[in-house]
Design goal:
700 residues; mainly beta; Porin; GMP Synthetase, Chain A, domain 3; 13-stranded antiparallel beta sheet; twelve-stranded antiparallel beta barrel; 34 strands
Length: 700
Amino acid sequence: MQIRHMMASGTAIIALLAGTHAVAQDRSYNLYGVPGLIDTPNARSAPDAEIAATIGGFSAQRRGSFTFQLLPNLSGTFRYAGLSDRGDGREDIFDRSFDLRYQLLQETDFLPDIAIGLQDFLGTGYLASEYIVATKTITDRLDVTAGLGWGRLGTRNGFDNPLAIFSDAFLTRPELQNVERGEGGQIDAAQFFRGDAAFFGGVSYAYSDKLTLKVEYSSEIYDAASGGGEIDDKSPINVGLNYTYRPGLDVQLAYLYGSELAAGATLTLNPRTRLAPGGRETAPTPVRVRPNDLSAAASWGTDEQTLIQTLKDAGITLDGYDVTSDTVARVRYTNDTFRSEAQAMGRVARILSAELPAAVETFVLEPQQRGIPLQATTIQRRDLETLENRAQGAALIAQNSVTTDAQPGTGLTYTLDTEPAFTWGLGPYAKLIVFNGDAPVQIDGGIELKAKYTFAPNIIAKGVIRQSLRDLPLADETENEDDLQNVRTDGRLYGQGGNPVIQTLTLAHYGRPSTDLYSRVTAGYLEDQHGGISSELLWKPVDSRLAIGAELNYTAQRDYDQLFGFQDYDVVTGHLSGYYSFDNGFHAQVDVGRYLAGDWGATFGLDREFDNGWRVGAYFTLTDVPFEEFGEGSFDKGIRITVPNDFFLGNATRDKVTTNLQSLQRDGGARINVDGRLYDIVRDGHTAGRFGDTFGRFWR
């Protein structure tokens, strides 16, 4: 009887929602860092590709969440929560968890948004719940939400699981499979949508463009039995507000469960939308249209220095050139400035049209990075003259040009490099460290000396020396009590003496052994904890979505003072890697081989990259280290983010910042961190890569 009553009530709510007209939608985030009301979710989806960072909570929980809208209807969340007063006799803990939610149905005039979600499906399970929720716009200011929850969202006024009509197994929610609750890191699908269910819901009212008022009925209980924190829970009703301080920054305030004050803030941005206006770089040289009566080609030698300087002023280095039969100009160059090789190529082509004799009709342009030519694109000069100001001009240039693998450098006249071989710089550094043990956020900062010596374009020595100014050592990480070598969990011991340290000191050689093949050998102090020699070979045709690589390393563990000495531990590691570019900017990578602690396994990664250089992805590693031996987290996993500097500055630059959000740094699945791996360098210049993806910037 109780089940029928609850199901009838839910049906009535959905029917009420279905009969209303859709006008506006509340897409603000809740205290869990997902689209929702206050402490419960709703069915809204954020705009495609939106990134949200939420921090907030109340006395029982402090939460930090990172949410990414992977697809228009699919989002993922990584959460870091401090749990207090759990009633089980254990000290306060910091818990890591992952969410997934999928929007099953988008709102129409007659139907609501409907979403299904898994909360803490890959973690300790302290915050685990599943839900199905519907949200409907009632008026241009009012949204109504109703949902059905399990797990934590089924702990208040729960009733027999309606899914029991399919199987009695749904009636009981089993205990987590981990022997010690808190190990986490494993998917326990046997819990999904099991046990008691309960209704939750609420309304949000847009009082103004900036202020939204919210009231909800929560089906979650915070008590000693729940493991998620204990409070004086007097009421299921929560009230709160969301205030948009400025676009991209919201503040949340709430009164929870009749006893708790809560606060939070959410910062959102979308990689598709620049924060700083673009186009601040110097305007490109216009195409020079030739007269009808073409004169004979003049000697290039008289114009070489002018061409070198003009390209240099544009942020491009001329490496070599050749003129064949006075009608074909072959130019090899390095783009030092522009994130997009297509944009750099457009600049080079226009400069050549202005500087070369009128008889030169064909340009063969060969971009290179770190001394390795990436490809060769053949463009007709007459196309530049006729398409510069045409609608869809970049697409027509791409259609009329031919891109192939770069030919050997024989036949080129190499220019004398006017840049100094030795460069250096001294300045401050700052390093953000997140989710390190029981320290949510830490900052290391100090003074950094960088130096580079270029023996040849493809032979580069470089190093970084740092002096930290921090007064206290970083927070301790959990000791590794298993038989694995502490290749990462001893990280807290490095550089703690207060003296200058050598972060890296390497000599690297890059090459092109054959058609479609690229090579790298790097030797020295490869990273802050390990040094040795790293070698790599990559097969990547210019027009192929597929690439295959092989890497072999011999490394030793460095002394804790991060100077020149090594410890007794050394290891041979290596991986076979496969890379594939899908549509819509998705890139998959699989690495199979041996890791730093001697374990064998594979790393799986999926990233979404945007044409403006942003990249957001996730990865996980499974090796032959048993979950219980690996320790907390069970296996290595995390989120990685690459942010191009020009997104914020607006100026042309190839600089970028990459950050890893790891659930926990452990020894299993650890891989050497070496600068200059080939795939990202090579893909910059390929049609089945960033060059093709950003060719629309050819005329920028």
